[in-house]
């Protein structure tokens, strides 16, 4: 029915398109000028890297420093570009999981995608005793038992920290980080503060 | 081609590129300390995105990933991914797309928006689907809302709203090069996205698609419907301040399209058509029609986000020019809208807005097609308000009303009431009652279209032996079609992996448009719609509102993440429609067409399997029930058919190589019957290999 290779007559029919497509050539210099990278995902990835310096994990584990993402990637791939860098002289590796029951205990940091919002409370409950720093960005993440929440306010990102949850998991958050953040405690579904 | 747009495009690109940053923002950010990072401003997301789970409407979202993994290369084909949407290809450049019934080549009850710009044509209130295009890789999502959405969106949102949303420029930074070749299509895609200072970004793209001819049973061979299109466009998102963002975007396209017209009726009064062909006087059995179609649009949107108050102001212009043998038309639209979201106290969220649209059209009259009051300017005004009231924590009530004024029928009001009950995170029930109208189109109000040739009238000494024609005349008094809809929905998340979405509806339509005979001729002719029967043909036909209809149906979709790397999606829809003309009507066949042209049921199953991190395999099976009669002016029955598509893709770093096979089960199959002026065609099996480099 069709010929994949254009015949000369077909090429002649394409010529008018070249006439209309010439402005593309003008874009060539632009291709060499412009840069790459988009703002918000990269900023969040950088924040994950920076705040890890303020956290102390229970045992000085060896091997890899694994940063895990549960659910759709909110970093648009930028987090994976941290691989090759080091935190406390341990090389970073990243891992992505679709379900909470696939998440291994070797994750040092777990970033919970907003996609998991509906199941957030039960997922956080499940991991509450693991020595794993839980990060998230949905409203009430920290109040539902997440350790550090990325919070958008006035066009900037800030932290909301639930230090009690971190302590229960055996993690220590350095004072300078706490001083830059808003502090909350875990609240149950009906809004009462839990002991 | 709108050449005057190119210098503008170039200027915009150069201006923005001169401000482009050369560095990778991640490296920049990593060189700062935490305190500095926290003081950085980030690009604001323009509008509050309603979570699908929280909306009291039958909404389905087609994501960019869904589109990529389906292998489709056009918006109409992508719509097959949504439950309850009937997508039938009429030929290589025409589709009949409908929601909840009323499928037809000139289907007119859908509102289609691309980034807030309405793209259905005011000529007949349907959509020229082949020229509605964006770079598919830059689609953020397509929201498919089945059922009325008029309170917010306005007239024509009767049976559904298709809202195509492209991603912000900041999310498409980088260069994309794509090439594809197959036996039915070839394509080239280029896009370049760049970051600008302070959270602003832009992109430019160009694409070329060529589609090969399909098969025509009328011609026993190539259908002569091959076509190609070149399109380019840009989008720039600027962060003006902490609260304000500005989007500027535009597209321009040029298409060379082909189609074969059948039984093309010639003007007996035109000396150029003399002497008549003795075999078929004043009629060309088949006439190849090569025509051009082009257009451009430019849109500006300004959004101010003040936390509890979000305001949006949007202006666009849209130009289209389409030169078919049967209809030569130019349409220019200017549209201006303002809307605001307000949080009132803790419980109320108010949305209100107003808009103005001016449409100027210009038709070149031919013997076959005449538009009166040409050129014509139409003006539309609208005002809407909707309040979302949090009755209790788990109960939300939404009430709204839209007032709209148009030149044909004056004022129309479209209210809706919706209730959402989400007892916990896993279950949500919703109930909705709404009224929507479809206002008359230009075609229905002031046009005159030749539909059939009639044998010579022996009683007319002046014109005998010249054949006559049957015309459909517009009726300036035609009213709006009205829908009263009742909907019920349920969403259920069993756990993280399984979710289910069910919608039920009962629709009552009144004042549906009918074709009415005016007088009748004095001699009998064979009935073109009922072979073997003779009848007295009417003098002419005109439009009136003498039909009512009811429909009910259900749409179900299931999403199951069966394994970490295996996802299954299933859709099922059922529709039962019955139409009934008034006793005073002479429209003898419309009821049968309305009932016969929509699939009683459809189902589909998709499997998305990531075999290894690099290799993926996607299967897609779709079944559409038989159509007993598609097409108003030439009946065609379509057997039930099953389509099966297979996509294999290999992805490594920036490169993706994919191979897609469409319609594997049969050499060819029919999906819909064209109206009598076009030949029937069948969809053929096809393969397409695509290489995409995104860096």
Please supply descriptive tags for the structure shown above.
heterodimer; A: 195 residues; alpha/beta; Rossmann fold; eight-stranded mixed β-sheet; two-stranded antiparallel sheet; 23% strand; globular; disordered N terminus; B: 695 residues; mainly beta; Maltoporin, Chain A; 22-stranded antiparallel barrel
Describe this structure in words.
The complex is a heterodimer of chains A (195) and B (695). Chain A is 29% helix and 23% strand. Chain A has 195 residues and is α/β, with parallel strands linked by helices. Chain A has one domain: Rossmann fold (3-Layer(aba) Sandwich), CATH 3.40.50. In chain A, the strands form two sheets. Chain A has an eight-stranded mixed sheet with strand order 3-4-2-5-6-7-8-10, with helices on one face. A two-stranded antiparallel sheet of chain A has the order 1-9. In chain A, strand 5 (107-112), helix 4 (120-126) and strand 6 form a beta-alpha-beta unit. Chain B is mainly β. Chain B has one domain (5-694): Maltoporin, Chain A (Beta Barrel). In chain B, 7% of the residues lie in helices and 57% in strands. Chain B contains eight helices and 40 strands. Chain B has a 22-stranded antiparallel β-barrel. In chain B, strands 1-6-7-4-5 form a five-stranded mixed sheet. In chain B, strand 9 (185-195) and strand 10 (201-211) form a beta hairpin. The two termini of chain B are 31 Å apart. The interface between A and B is large, with 55 and 71 residues.
The residue ranges of chain A in which pLDDT falls below 50 over 5 or more consecutive positions are 1-6, 21-38
CATH class of chain B: Mainly Beta
Give the terminus-to-terminus CA distance of chain B. Answer: 31 Å
> How many independent structural domains of chain B?
1
Count of strand segments of chain A: 10
| Percentage of residues in helical conformation of chain A | 25-40%
Question: What would the principal axes of the Cα set say about the shape of chain B?
Answer: globular
Task: Please give the oligomerization state of what you see.
Answer: heterodimer
Q: Return the average pLDDT of chain B rounded to an integer.
A: 89
SSE string of chain A, helix = H, strand = E? HHHEEEEEHEEEHEHE
């Amino acid at each position: 029915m069709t010929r994949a290779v254009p015949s000369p007559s077909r090429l002649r029919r394409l010529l008018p398109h070249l006439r209309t497509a010439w402005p593309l050539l003008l874009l060539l210099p632009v291709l060499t000028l412009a840069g790459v990278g988009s703002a918000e995902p990269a900023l969040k990835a950088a924040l994950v890297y920076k705040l890890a310096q303020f956290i102390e994990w229970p045992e000085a584990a060896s091997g890899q420093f694994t940063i895990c993402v549960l659910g759709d990637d909110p970093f648009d791939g930028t987090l994976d570009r941290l691989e090759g860098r080091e935190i406390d002289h341990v090389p970073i590796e990243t891992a992505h999981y679709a379900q909470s029951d696939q998440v291994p205990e070797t994750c040092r940091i777990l970033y919970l995608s907003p996609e998991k919002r509906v199941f957030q409370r039960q997922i956080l409950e499940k991991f509450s005793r693991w020595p794993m720093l839980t990060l998230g960005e949905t409203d009430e993440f920290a109040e539902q038992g997440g350790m550090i929440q990325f919070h958008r306010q006035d066009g900037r990102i800030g932290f909301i920290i639930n230090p009690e949850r971190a302590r229960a998991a055996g993690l220590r958050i350095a004072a300078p980080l706490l001083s830059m953040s808003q502090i909350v405690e875990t609240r149950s579904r009906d809004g009462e503060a839990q002991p | 081609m709108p050449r005057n747009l190119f210098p503008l495009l170039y200027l915009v690109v150069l201006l923005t590129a001169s401000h482009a940053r050369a560095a990778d923002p991640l490296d920049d950010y990593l060189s700062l300390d935490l305190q500095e990072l926290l003081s950085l401003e980030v690009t604001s997301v323009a509008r509050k995105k309603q979570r699908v789970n929280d909306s009291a409407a039958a909404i389905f979202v087609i994501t960019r990933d869904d589109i990529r993994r389906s292998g489709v290369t056009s918006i109409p084909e992508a719509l097959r991914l949504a439950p309850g949407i009937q997508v039938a290809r009429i030929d290589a450049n025409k589709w009949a797309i409908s929601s909840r019934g009323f499928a037809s080549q000139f289907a007119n009850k859908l509102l289609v928006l691309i980034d807030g710009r309405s793209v259905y044509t005011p000529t007949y209130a349907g959509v020229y689907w082949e020229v509605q295009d964006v770079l598919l890789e830059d689609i953020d999502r397509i929201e498919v809302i089945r059922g009325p959405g008029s309170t917010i969106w306005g007239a024509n949102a009767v049976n559904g709203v298709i809202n195509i949303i492209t991603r912000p420029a900041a999310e498409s930074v980088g260069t994309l090069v794509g090439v594809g070749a197959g036996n039915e299509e070839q394509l080239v895609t280029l896009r370049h996205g760049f970051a600008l200072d302070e959270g602003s970004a832009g992109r430019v793209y160009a694409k070329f698609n060529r589609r090969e001819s399909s098969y025509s049973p009328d011609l026993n061979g190539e259908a002569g419907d091959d076509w190609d299109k070149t399109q380019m466009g840009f989008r720039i998102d600027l962060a003006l301040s902490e609260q304000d963002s500005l989007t500027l975007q535009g597209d321009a396209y040029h298409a060379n399209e082909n189609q074969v017209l059948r039984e093309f009726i010639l003007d007996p009064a035109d000396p150029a058509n003399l002497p008549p062909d003795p075999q078929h006087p004043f009629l060309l059995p088949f006439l190849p029609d090569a025509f051009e179609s082009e257009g451009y649009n430019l849109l500006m949107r300004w959004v101010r986000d003040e936390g509890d108050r979000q305001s949006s102001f949007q202006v666009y212009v849209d130009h289209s020019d389409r030169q078919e043998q049967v209809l030569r038309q130019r349409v220019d639209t200017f549209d201006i809208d303002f809307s605001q979201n307000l949080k009132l106290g803790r419980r109320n969220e108010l949305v209100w807005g107003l808009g103005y649209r001016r449409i100027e059209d210009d038709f070149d009259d031919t013997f076959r097609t005449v538009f009166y009051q040409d050129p014509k300017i139409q003006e539309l005004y609208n005002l809407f308000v909707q309040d979302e009231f949090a009755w209790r924590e788990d109960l939300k009530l939404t009430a709204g009303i839209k007032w709209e004024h148009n030149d044909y029928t004056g004022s129309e009001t479209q209210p809706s009431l919706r209730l959402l009950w989400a007892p916990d995170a896993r279950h949500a029930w919703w109930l909705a009652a709404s009224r929507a109208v479809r206002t008359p189109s230009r075609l229905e109000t002031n046009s005159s279209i030749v539909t059939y040739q009639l044998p010579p009238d022996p009683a007319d000494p002046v014109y005998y032996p010249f054949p006559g024609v049957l015309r459909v005349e517009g009726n300036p008094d035609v009213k709006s079609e009205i829908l009263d809809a009742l909907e019920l929905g349920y969403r259920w998340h069993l756990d993280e992996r399984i979710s289910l979405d069910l919608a039920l509806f009962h629709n009552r339509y009144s004042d549906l448009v009918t074709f009415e005979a005016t007088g009748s001729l004095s001699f009998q002719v064979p009935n073109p719609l009922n072979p073997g029967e003779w009848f007295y043909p009417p003098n002419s036909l005109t439009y009136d509102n003498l039909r009512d209809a009811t429909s009910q149906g259900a749409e179900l979709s299931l999403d199951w993440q069966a394994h970490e790397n295996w996802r299954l999606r299933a859709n099922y829809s059922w529709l039962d429609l019955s139409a009934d003309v008034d006793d005073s009507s002479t429209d003898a066949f419309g009821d049968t067409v309305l009932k016969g042209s929509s699939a009683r049921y459809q189902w589909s199953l998709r499997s998305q399997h990531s075999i290894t991190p690099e290799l993926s395999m996607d299967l897609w099976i779709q079944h559409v029930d038989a159509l007993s009669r598609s097409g108003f002016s030439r009946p065609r029955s379509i057997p039930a058919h099953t389509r099966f598509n297979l996509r294999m893709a290999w992805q490594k770093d920036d490169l993706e190589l994919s191979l897609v096979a469409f319609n594997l089960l049969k050499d060819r199959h029919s999906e819909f019957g064209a109206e009598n002026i076009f030949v029937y065609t069948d969809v053929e099996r096809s393969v397409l290999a695509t290489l995409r480099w995104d860096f």
